[in-house]
Fold:
Amino acid sequence: MKQCAVEGADPQRGETPARQLDRFTRCAIGRRKINLMLTVGSQGLYEWLVTDQQFDLLQISPEVVLGKYIAITSIDSGPLVPTDDETAAGWESRKKIAYSPKIQTIQGLPRAGWDEWYIFDNPTDLGTSHLEENIFEMPQEQGHVSVLVNYGFALYPPERSNHLATLFWEQLARIRPASYVADNDYLTFVSINKRLFASVRDAVKSLR
Structure:
């Protein structure tokens, strides 16, 4: 979901112009990578893909979120605190998790890298986020959310998923989202919607 466009820094999120320029530079460098990786797999009813290619997922596959509801557990490694404009538009923050209204457009959706999204067909409440706590010491049960993206989690390569994949799939079974997106050094996309997954997979392949 990374974007390489330089836009005005958002002081409400504590992003300075220098930090934003650094983010742009890292993203632009990522675009020069060759031998790009795309790996796909499945687990139960879910299909997944992981790629190290740098691009804005929503620009190539806006249907991932259009008409859906998003629960954001991480943005730029921290919690999303909705701006005044986002709050007026229906965004809420509860227990370190930000919840969107029904998504009508991808324009203005908050994303910055090191993001983690759970996407639903209907409004939901995930409970308590343990964003700044050791996920291996937190309750693995309904109403408690371990934030994996900041541990460098991806379902591939194996060194990225060791010790975390089991926790991830167990948590996904409890939360039961329509789709999941994690964006760190890798982009991980997981969906229970086979038609949507195929569309995203084909769109990513077309970029290679």
Remarks:
- Helices lie at 17-30, 57-60, 84-88, 158-161, 165-175, 194-207.
